[in-house]
Amino acid sequence: MMAVEISGVAKTFRASHGPRRVFEHLDATFPRGASVGILGVRNAGKSTLLRLIGGSILPDHGKVRRHGSVSPPVATTQAYHAALTGRENLHFVARVNGFDGDAAARFVACFAQMGEAIDQPLSSYTRERRSRFLFAASYALPFDIYLADEALFGGTGVFRERCAELVQARRTQATLIFTTRSPQMLRRFADIGAVLHEGRLHMFERIGDAIRLFRSLDPGTASDTDSAPEDEEDEEERFADEPFGPSA
């Protein structure tokens, strides 16, 4: 049984220098209950692929079939309003997706140790609190399919490790599809490895095979022994600085 099926998808964007074709005829399937890690060099189309899977953009041609509920990308800010409190935002997002807002708010308040901040406007959050809220909120709702664009988890110190443990727990309960440039993250969190290159998605049952192909395309790839993949930290910085959705 598949969680996501992509058939003959084409996608082209308009750019200042002319059309940029990302996919011409993409076919791919993602098994239900699997954790699929997608490696790719910069500008390979990883974010575009996740946006197509999530439905935030539509293909020019072809079809994307989703069998189950799909999360927004982990730590995205666009679903939240800066003028609303953390609790109000969680209730809104949960209601839109048909989930229990009270349960989501309790989970985030406890897991991210929000204290009274859960009832304060998101615009008042410190950078660290903002990061904790976003990552905890991403896994607070029981989606069938979780999407993560580069950043699977965030925060610092003990919270970061607890967040990584939460990702491991969620991948046993649902389908996880994530992109990365870190072989270490692939080994740690993926059941199936994939490499996106020149508009094609190459899937591998053996993680090592995916990593070898990726390294042949990007010789500067960080070693598996690196303790903190640079792209994970870079992406956490991006989410921490990304603006929330429109304020009231």
Automatic annotation (TrEMBL):
One of its GO terms (molecular function) is ATP binding. The keyword Cell membrane does not apply. Residues 218-248 are annotated as: Disordered. Residues 227-239 have a biased composition (Acidic residues). Residues 4-223 form the ABC transporter domain. Pfam families: ABC_tran. Keywords: ATP-binding, Nucleotide-binding. PROSITE patterns: ABC_TRANSPORTER_2. SUPFAM superfamilies: P-loop containing nucleoside triphosphate hydrolases. PANTHER family: TEICHOIC ACIDS EXPORT ATP-BINDING PROTEIN TAGH (PTHR46743:SF2). This is ABC transporter related protein. It comes from Ancylobacter novellus (strain ATCC 8093 / DSM 506 / JCM 20403 / CCM 1077 / IAM 12100 / NBRC 12443 / NCIMB 10456).
